[in-house]
Amino acid sequence: MKPELLDETRASWNFATKQHNAHKRDQAAFFRAGGTTLFPDELELLGDVRGKSLLHVCCNSGQDSVSLSALGANVTGVDFGDEAIAFARALAADCQSTATFVHSEATAFLETTAQRFDVVFFSYGVLGWFEDLPRVVRGFARVLAGGGRLVGLEIHPFIWSVGSNGEWKDPYFAPGRDFADPVTDYVGESKGALSPSGHVDAAPLTNPHVAHSWQHTVGDIVSAVAASGLVVEQVREYPYANGFRPSAWFVPRGKEGVDARRFIPPPPVSFPVMLGVTARAS
Ligand SMILES: C[S@@+](CC[C@H](N)C(=O)[O-])C[C@H]1O[C@@H](n2cnc3c(N)ncnc32)[C@H](O)[C@@H]1O
Question: What pTM was computed for the model?
Answer without folding.
Answer: 0.97
